[in-house]
């Protein structure tokens, strides 16, 4: 159930590191073209609407293509849905307030059933995001404005740090003749690691990211790439059906639970992966408990400490540990 030309791997995007560079390049080219038009005496392009109704026919242009310049928040709703009527005005108001730092795409699930099925929507409201063509699940159900801001702020941070996407606002608000800032050259050692990951050379990618971290231990991009590459290496040769069968038959089989959590995360089921390992920590002791705890902390690294789902899982982990 994959949307057209999109990864359904959620925040654990197997090509996210490579896509980050490509997305940043596309966004920079678009900004440079707008600046060139203005400098040549032409009128800047009219700002695009920050809230759009999307259909199956317009999804590619309104969501996937626009996600190269700004995070696109996708709100799945329906006319009969009471919680949707509470949430949608909040998201619309925030889209205007954030002034181009994200775009809100509204999808009526009744009128666009194929899209809803492709995204695996089972309940509404459901809110996801697309950044550089990559799917990032956000939340389900109605949330209040403060909670929505928390999710949006984290999404914007991820878009900027991992993909170099800063939104529409800065480019549209520039003074006439103002040139776009020059693109920052990509680190060649990181580029080599990204290329190895993109080729599927997981061993080479892991070593390359470790080399980067040996020189620059604080490189968040290298830490993310290493965590992703190690995760992919663990699941590459796993029989998903056999792993899930073993995990279901014996909840105390720690290795089966670790393997199943990895598969959950690669499939974009972040909360399921975290919940599985928190439960495993709670039902085990000694070395088994420590294995599950350390593995869970490693999955936190893949997602990022600022993600609200990580904070929630840390709290749950603390409860079972103490």
UniProtKB/TrEMBL annotation:
<dbReference type="InterPro" id="IPR036249">
    <property type="entry name" value="Thioredoxin-like_sf"/>
</dbReference>
<keyword id="KW-0676">Redox-active center</keyword>
<keyword id="KW-0813">Transport</keyword>
<dbReference type="GO" id="GO:0005737">
    <property type="term" value="C:cytoplasm"/>
</dbReference>
<dbReference type="Pfam" id="PF14561">
    <property type="entry name" value="TPR_20"/>
</dbReference>
<protein>
    <submittedName>
        <fullName>Co-chaperone YbbN</fullName>
    </submittedName>
</protein>
<dbReference type="GO" id="GO:0006950">
    <property type="term" value="P:response to stress"/>
</dbReference>
<dbReference type="Pfam" id="PF00085">
    <property type="entry name" value="Thioredoxin"/>
</dbReference>
<comment type="similarity">
    <text>Belongs to the thioredoxin family.</text>
</comment>
<keyword id="KW-0249">Electron transport</keyword>
<feature type="domain" description="Thioredoxin">
    <location>
        <begin position="40"/>
        <end position="157"/>
    </location>
</feature>
<dbReference type="InterPro" id="IPR011990">
    <property type="entry name" value="TPR-like_helical_dom_sf"/>
</dbReference>
<feature type="region of interest" description="Disordered">
    <location>
        <begin position="25"/>
        <end position="47"/>
    </location>
</feature>
<dbReference type="GO" id="GO:0015035">
    <property type="term" value="F:protein-disulfide reductase activity"/>
</dbReference>
<keyword id="KW-1015">Disulfide bond</keyword>
<dbReference type="InterPro" id="IPR013766">
    <property type="entry name" value="Thioredoxin_domain"/>
</dbReference>
<dbReference type="InterPro" id="IPR017937">
    <property type="entry name" value="Thioredoxin_CS"/>
</dbReference>
